[in-house]
Amino acid sequence: TQLLEQSPQFLSIQEGENLTVYCNSSSVFSSLQWYRQEPGEGPVLLVTVVTGGEVKKLKRLTFQFGDARKDSSLHITAAQPGDTGLYLCAGGWGDMRFGAGTRLTVKP
Amino acid sequence: DAGVIQSPRHEVTEMGQEVTLRCKPISGHDYLFWYRQTMMRGLELLIYFNNNVPIDDSGMPEDRFSAKMPNASFSTLKIQPSEPRDSAVYFCASITSGRVNEQFFGPGTRLTVL
Fold this sequence. Notes:
heterodimer; A: mainly beta; 6-stranded mixed β-sheet; 52% strand; globular; B: mainly beta; 7-stranded mixed β-sheet; 4-stranded antiparallel β-sheet; 11 strands
């Protein structure tokens, strides 16, 4: 059973557009992580959010942790083809659980 | 620095055969995780070790699956006998207890069981 639900499942946009993907849970997490996975590779950690309401920025990517620490969002500004990939959120530790991911395609 | 190393990168085998996947974690990392990824089920945790000791194997799907970590620099995941439904990408990841939120994944082993 997936404890983390991600939406949308698929997203295809043009270069230059903005987008937001979501990660929601009924459980409270002490932290959430966002990973990006490219074809043929393992997931790579982008960011960890630990405090309710926290906002972290990584260049054109903005991550937010919900006040209740049950949800998180990832916003990408002016998407580029290099942003294409599978975006995964994960929570917990030890028995870390992953969402099913949002598969993003950015077309040039 | 070398990341997590997995071998082989690709494995094709026939149903009933034994399959052994290998992982070398990042040096100094004291936790090692095995995951399986499929389109249907996403990324699932199978088992994890701390200081070479299995801590939680509740994700191992069946007795056909077994994992060992004989030392801090090597782990294996074995499937015997393999079945077509075991076809997936298997990932190994490691972390250090000093930074538990940062998992480093290997490139994965793509297993196809015919």
